[in-house]
Structures are given as C-alpha cells and as structure tokens.
Amino acid sequence: MTTKNAPPAGLEIASQFSFCPRCGTGALERHSEKSVHCPACGFLFFFNTAAAVVALITDQEGRLLVTKRAHHPAQGTLDLPGGFVDAHETAEEALSRETREEINLEITGLRYLFSVPNIYDYASLRYYTMDLAFECSVRDLSMLRAGDEVAEILFVRPEDLDVNAFGLKSIKEIIARFIAGRVTGAGESK
After folding, report:
1. For the domain 50-184, what is the CATH superfamily, name and number?
2. Which of 48, 112, 135, 151 lies at a CB distance of 3.0 to 4.6 Å from 68, suitable for a disulfide?
3. pLDDT at 5
4. What is the distance between the alpha carbons of residues 47 and 133, in angstroms, rounded to a whole number?
C-alpha cells in the first residue's frame, strides 16, 4: 500500500485546529510538509505516526480469534485484539497489555509479521497510525472473556472470514493477508 499521493499529514491535521494549543492565539501555519508552527509564540509541532499493535491468535482448529467492536469508530464491526502503544512501552508490551485488557488472555509467544499504515478517525480528529501485526500464542483460551471495548468474541475459520465485515482499513488488509497466507500457503502467516 502506498500513500505517496496522499496530502501531507501535517496540513490535514493542522486544519482541524483553530488556535495554537500553547498560546491560544492565531491559526497554525505550515512549517514544513510534516510540521506546523504558531507565528505568535513559536510553537512548533511535528506530525508523526502513532504505533499500534494487532494480535492474530488462532485456536487448535486453526480458527482466528476475532472481536466485535463495542464502541466507535466502526462500532459493531469485526476487529482483532490490539490497540495503541503507550509512551515508554514496547510494541510487545503493548500487545500483551491490550490482549489482557480486551480479551483477558496472556500472550506466551509472538512473532512479528508485517506493518500496515492506517488512518484512524476518532472524536473529530484524524490520527495516522502504523499497525504492527503479530502472530501470537496464548496460555489458556479458557480464560477468554470480553473487556469493555469488546462486544463479542468469535473464532472463525480462515476460509469463512469476510474482509468487508471488518471496520478498519488496516485490519481489512491484515485479514486479507492472513487469508492469503492461511488458505494458499503463501504470505507471512503460518
């Protein structure tokens, strides 16, 4: 997936703010393709991508664990366990934390697969993310239970997965790549 023709993220994001977050005066102006500044106080902000993690967990029958989103964005659509990486946290630590919080499972092993850029629209703001997909093994599926962000947990055979049932663009791509790898034996999934 390429984003070469996409507008510079800084300009797109800066247009969502009416005033400088530091001094509250004047509109932010373009500083570079990836940054904006306030001419009144000198505030300078670079728009960087936020890291997010995604878990691909299968059961002994090879079915993929998928969740149904309890909240917006994309409420009611299918998803995979995961979320944003917090400050001072590794991707692996974030994946373990998110998996515990969302579905009450402890990750015992993981293998990085690939990354997918994403645009995450939330609360009238647009966030640019880099979703890191990991194949995960877990200690005990009997401990599985939905947390606050999950409306339902399902296990789905790869051949029964419908990419369009997933609400987030990056997750659709991850699922498509998972299906290709599982069904044809190609790709980066096992």
Report:
1. Nucleoside Triphosphate Pyrophosphohydrolase (3.90.79.10)
2. 151
3. 47
4. 23
